[in-house]
Amino acid sequence: MRQDSNSGCPERNSVICQSTNHKAIVSDVCASFNSRMWGRNGVLCSFLILCLWACLNAVPIDVGKTKVSPPAEELEPPKSADTGLHYDRYLREVVDFLEKDPHFREKLHNTDMEDIKVGKLAKELDFVSHHVRTKLDELKRQEVNRLRTLIKVKQDLDGERGMTVDHQGLLKQFEHLNHLNPHTFEVDDLDRLIKSATDDLENFDKDQHEEFKKYEMMKEHERRERLKTLDEEARKKEEEHYLEMKKKHAEHPKINHPGSQDQFKEVWEETDGLDPADFNTKTFFSLHDTNGDGYLDEQELEALFTKELEKIYDPTQEEDDMVEMEEERLRMREHVINEVDTNKDRLVSLDEFMAATNKKEFAQQEGWETLEQNPIYSEDELREFEEHLIREEQDLNQKTNDLVRQREELERHQQELSAQKIQLQQAVEHMERLKSQKTEPPVQAKVNAVPSAMEILPGDSQSLGQGHQQDLPAHS
Predict the structure, then answer these.
(1) What does pTM read for this prediction?
(2) Any idea which fold 239-377 has?
(3) Per the database entry, which stretches of residues form a coiled coil (predicted)?
(4) In this structure, how many other beta carbons lie within 10 angstroms of the beta carbon of residue 2?
């Protein structure tokens, strides 16, 4: 643990203590950069080291004389490269906070990758400081809440669509932690996190290759389907153009074997701008260890292959596919990792690099076989892929027809409901008319109207004519 510049130091030694603290800060930062698991931002790291080195060489200020305490600055852990995992943020935050603990950081840097995989490092969690453990507990609770929210949203969406919720599939989201204990971060949580991240990262390249294979087969499938729509003459021209583009793409300079002396010397000369006669493998490693952590990570390795890839791919040319370029870059990086990374931690240390460059294979001038020389798929695989597409299309058409029928049924049901609504409205109007007729007063007879004989009452003789009055009997 690093002490404050004023604590534990007499005032007469404040200048010496402060200078010592500057050195301690530089040492801690360099140690935090020496991560064996994740890539680092090279520009940020170089900038921080440069600034701290400037502070180290600057004229020290006597804090005791100025009576001003220097502000306590908490150095943030370096930003790790995104792993692409769905729990990437949780993973990086856990690793960053564990590296703040001196004991765990030392164990991490001195533990073999195989021991990390089998869980030996996870047991060191019991010796981590209380402050770090408390922060890890908080991170786990946040991650559990995040996953619960995602699962709840997934269940709601599937429920609205009438779909069956795949609870087993949803529970798999918790494999990187122990969800039965959502409150505290324990040894089992660290063990689960390490194993999940290791397995997922090891399968990442494999998944990338599968995606690229599907991309290439889909591209060929669409080309062949387009040919079917053309007449014979247009089809012939299209085939000739396709073969011409393939031939043009294959016409490129020799590609140096990735990780060979020729390949590194070309980078040394054309990228680094140095004299080939002065080529030195140790200096080359230091130049391309851009974050200065003592390792070449996957991003730093892939940057070494840019000159070779530029010989094959040009984004302005029709025959060059940039998706294929990234697949080629991945193949080159995998080759170097497999040849040089002896402890299988997906990083190349200086010792591993020097050992590889001392082998006789390093000086061999064997070229590199590119993608066009290594077919990605066979005709049988393409046929299976097309059959799969046909089945998917049939399933999609069936679902579409089902949806059309459901829509038609809903429309008929809506029409029936509309007709019933109209009938109900008509019945209500009829009832209202009947009700109004019963409550209306009788219509008064007109004065000039002649009443019928049944309506004439005794004493109403005035309403009769004189001819009729004589016929009526006289009243006594």
Answers:
(1) 0.59
(2) Recoverin; domain 1 (1.10.238)
(3) 187-240, 382-437
(4) 12
